[in-house]
Hints:
single chain; 7-stranded antiparallel sheet; 17 strands; about 0% helix; globular
Amino acid sequence: MTLTLPGLPSLHWSGVVGEAAFDEESHALTLRAAGGVDWTNDATGGPAQHAATALAFPAPEGDFVLSARVRVVGARSTFDAGALPLWSTPDRWAKLCNEYSPQGEPMVVSVVTNDVSDDANGPPFVADAVFLRVARTGPAYVFHFSLDGRAWRFVRLFRLHVDLSTIAIGFLAQAPMGDGATAVFDDIRYAERSLGDLRDLS
């Protein structure tokens, strides 16, 4: 399946084929994750899993910025998430998530995987959605989040140990503990440009 969104290259499934729809009026992309699916290379030695629903397109050669407002609709189970992922291989990938915590609150969560996953919890938030942003800056990648889509707060700066030409970027839904999850992405913005100061909220 190929899905075309305004302003983006054509999106293709990254790995497992899932359910997706794009609403032309609201410009909202909806991804439906089946129950029990995730992306994880468990640092404690558990089995790796890469069955989550993800649509992606090849990253450009230079710097880029991709952002979206992300929400997960309906009742949520632990670790249900909508995310912006970076993907190269099953051992080299990253994701920035609106994820439901074991304490029953949405959080900004980031995962960076070079062989094993470095999983880091960011702040919880009380809104029904959060803006997420992933960007390339030279040889590195940066994650930001925002509550209003204007003031962007730094999450982390990192590298993936792969050739930059192998990276795909896009949208992901996961539901590792529950029966399924529906993630909605709107206010999607993409540009082949560089960010300035990574910590000045711009």
